[in-house]
Amino acid sequence: MFNRFFRCVLLTTLLCMVSIAPGFAAKSPVIDVTSVRLGLHKDKTRFVLEMSEKPDVSVFLLAEPYRIVIDLPELNWQADDSAPRQKGVIQNYRYGLFKKHTSRVVLDVDGPVRILRSVILPPAAGKPYRFFIDIQRTDQASFMTAVRERRKEALAKEVAMAPQPPVQTPSGKKHIVIIDAGHGGIDPGAIGQSGVFEKIITLGVAQKLNGILAKNPAYHPIMTRNDDTFLSLRERVAVARGAGADLFISIHADSISRPDFRGATVYTLSETASDDEAAEIAHTANRSDLIGGVDLSAQDDTVQGILIDLAQRETMNFSVKVAEMIIPEIAKSGMKTRGRSHRFAGFRVLKAPDVPSVLVELGYLSNREDEKILKSQNGQTRLAQAIANAIAGYFDAVDP
Ligand SMILES: [Zn+2]
Question: From the CA of 124, how far away is ligand 1's center (Å)?
Answer without folding.
Answer: 45
